[in-house]
């Protein structure tokens, strides 16, 4: 039994690191597998202004580095590797790593997060954090009195556009069809907001700028022609994909692949398996809520093991 871990955390964003800090302080000697992108989505976020405790804006990568150092300091074993397979149904769970080793553990906390869907255009990477974002609540404040666009046609696009009207002078909503998929109440709010302008039957074909995004090239599907639109910022709102492929067929998920947990809990459909952060949360998707769920998961693990 010597090599069986008390708790193993899969994923290393705010949820994973917070779960590690709390479980280490409970003397559970956690192991954390950091995965492909240690630190998660915050490592591609530049200024963070809404994380409590910091008077001035902080850098996303710096915040994740601090959480990682704190987790290590209190006794977390951090493995910079990836999980290739899991077997979570038995009382002792098995986590297979890409270096060929296997972790045996009594409990597991899944905090693998979710990734925003991007358009996949050639120079998209260059402008991420430099005028291009997938989170209005994270970055909207930086576009006070500026011209911005939201790309998408569902609820998240509508909500992002409405949120951005608090800051931006003009918000263009660009959609490839001639009507939105968003709920009727959201559509009514968009139509009644004088700051929002619709660009229908249109795709973004190119992002243009030097260091920062300055304009976008549009392809109008109905006219079969291109045009350019000068902008200060673009928000992609075409959905998120939770990183849950590893757990398919073992844990209950919803139709979009988000892990389902019990009400007011991080407990999944499997005993001894917990989920925290964006992997189970499609509503808030904030660093602070992910960290809060990481804390909940660690406290629930401690209670379960005792």
Structural topology:
Blueprint: E1 5-10, H1 14-25, E2 31-33, E3 47-48, E4 58-59, H2 60-73, E5 77-79, E6 83-87, E7 93-97, E8 102-110, E9 114-116, H3 124-127, E10 132-133, H4 136-139, E11 147-151, H5 155-164, E12 170-174, H6 184-191, E13 196-199, E14 202-209, E15 213-220, E16 225-230, E17 233-236, E18 240-242, E19 273-275, H7 287-305
Parallel strand pairs: 1-2, 1-8, 2-5, 8-19, 10-17, 11-12, 11-17, 12-13
Antiparallel strand pairs: 3-4, 6-7, 7-8, 9-18, 14-15, 15-16
- Class from helix and strand fractions: alpha/beta
Q: Span between N and C termini? A: 17 Å
Helix fraction bin: 10-25%
Please provide the count of β strands: 19
Unreliable parts: none
Tell me the overall shape: elongated
Say what oligomer this is: single chain
> Rg, please?
21 Å
**Strand content range:** 25-35%
- Major β-sheet profile: 7 strands, mixed
Number of helices: 7
Overall average residue pLDDT? 94
Helix/strand order, N-terminal first: EHEEEHEEEEEHEHEHEHEEEEEEEH
């Amino acid at each position: 039994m010597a090599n069986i871990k008390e708790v193993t955390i899969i994923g290393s964003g705010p949820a994973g690191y917070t779960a590690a800090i709390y479980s280490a302080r409970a003397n559970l000697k956690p192991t954390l597998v950091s995965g492909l992108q240690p630190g998660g989505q915050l490592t591609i976020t530049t200024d963070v202004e809404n994380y409590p405790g910091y008077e001035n804006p902080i850098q996303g990568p710096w915040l994740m580095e601090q959480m990682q150092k704190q987790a290590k300091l209190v006794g977390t074993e951090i493995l910079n590797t990836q999980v290739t397979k899991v077997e979570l149904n038995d009382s002792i769970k098995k986590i297979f790593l890409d270096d060929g080793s296997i972790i045996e553990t009594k409990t597991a906390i899944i905090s693998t997060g979710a990734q925003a869907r991007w358009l996949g255009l050639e120079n998209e990477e260059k402008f991420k954090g430099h005028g291009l974002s997938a989170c209005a609540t994270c970055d909207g404040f930086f576009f006070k009195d500026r011209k911005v666009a939201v790309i998408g046609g569902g609820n998240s696009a509508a909500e992002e556009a409405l949120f951005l009207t608090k800051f931006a002078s003009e918000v263009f909503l660009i959609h490839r069809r001639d009507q939105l998929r968003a709920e009727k109440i959201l559509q009514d709010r968009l139509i009644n907001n004088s700051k929002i302008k619709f660009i229908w039957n249109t795709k973004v074909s190119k992002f243009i700028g030097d260091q920062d995004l300055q304009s976008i090239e549009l392809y109008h599907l109905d006219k079969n022609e291109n045009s350019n639109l000068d902008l200060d910022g673009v928000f992609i709102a075409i959905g998120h994909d939770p990183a849950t492929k590893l757990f398919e067929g073992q844990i209950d998920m919803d139709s979009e692949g988000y892990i389902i947990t019990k009400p007011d809990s991080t407990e999944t459909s499997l005993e001894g398996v917990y989920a925290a952060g964006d992997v189970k949360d499609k509503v808030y998707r904030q660093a602070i809520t992910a960290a809060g769920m990481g804390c909940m998961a660690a406290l629930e693990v401690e209670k379960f093991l005792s």
